[in-house]
Write a structure and sequence with these properties.
alpha+beta, Alpha-Beta Plaits, four-stranded antiparallel sheet, 3 helices, 26% strand, globular, UPF0045_domain, Thiamine-binding protein domain-containing protein
């Protein structure tokens, strides 16, 4: 499964990069395949692995912020691995052709 999620601290002002970095650090340390862009972090793995990472990422932000917003989107497709790469490669192939 692939989960794209965004964790946003609330009540800490406009500069939230430091808090978001805490969440991304959890994802990177998980060892699971992942990508971070301007809006979301995507992580790929089995259900329990991915949800544990999301939970710990939220907890990392929650430890320093009075309120946390979580947006999550999941692609649950058993048996598919390397979806983070293969999905993008498929789109690029169509764009090139």
């Amino acid at each position: 499964m692939i989960v794209a999620f965004s964790v946003t601290p609330l009540g800490v002002g406009e500069d939230v990069g430091e808090y978001v970095a805490d969440a991304v650090r959890v994802v990177r340390e998980s060892g699971l395949p992942h990508r971070t862009d301007a809006m979301f972090t995507s992580v790929e793995g089995e259900w329990d692995q991915v949800m544990d990472v999301v939970k710990r990422a939220v907890a990392a932000v929650e430890a320093r912020a009075p309120r946390v917003s979580l947006v999550l989107k999941a692609d649950i497709r058993p048996g598919v691995t390397d979806g983070l790469t293969s999905k993008v490669e498929t789109v690029e192939r169509y764009l090139a052709g």
